[in-house]
Amino acid sequence: MVHTHNNxxxxxxxxxxxxxxGPRLKVLSMLSAKNVATSQPDLESVMSDIDRVTLYRIxxxxxxxxxxxxxxxxxxxxxxxxxxxxxxxxxxHDEHLHFNCTxxxxxxxxxxxxxxxxxxxxxxxxxxxxxxxxxxxPKCSKTA
Length: 144
Ligand SMILES: [Zn+2]
Ligand SMILES: [Zn+2]
Ligand SMILES: [Zn+2]
Description:
Belongs to the Fur family. This is Fur family transcriptional regulator. It comes from Mucilaginibacter xinganensis. Zn(2+) binds at residues 101, 104, 137, 140. Keywords: DNA-binding, Iron, Metal-binding, Repressor, Transcription, Transcription regulation, Zinc. The protein starts with 8 loop residues before the first helix and ends with a helix. The relative contact order is 0.15. By secondary structure, the chain is α+β, with helices and mostly antiparallel strands. It has one domain: Winged helix-like DNA-binding domain superfamily/Winged helix DNA-binding domain (Arc Repressor Mutant, subunit A), CATH 1.10.10. Residues 1-6 have low confidence and may be disordered. It is built from 5 helices and 6 strands. The protein binds zinc ion (3 copies). Residues 101, 103-104, 106, 136-137, 139-140 line the site of one zinc ion.
């Protein structure tokens, strides 16, 4: 579940023609510091100096640019995780397995587990696939 992160956040923003603002850099460093996806409420609680609307805008801009992707957890809450380098503006390739831990509620991006090609019946035009697994993460299964 190790992302190949580009830790040059300023360069990342530049590449996507986004202004280098403090809040944007903060969001990037927060999301890439964790190996689990982070929910918006979690981000809010850490970045109390940024209002909710600003944070929402930052997240949607990042998602649009292919910097982060959204994953839903078991409660239907949106979580955000860094994208792999294969993602770009208006196209995401985050078709990897997402593991929802039923104990700690963490959402893990298992980048190394890519979805097999799925052929849908005639007439269906998919825009994306999401595969979720639920259960205990390594940390929780050890203590269980
Ligand atoms: Zn992506
Ligand atoms: Zn867990
Ligand atoms: Zn992911």
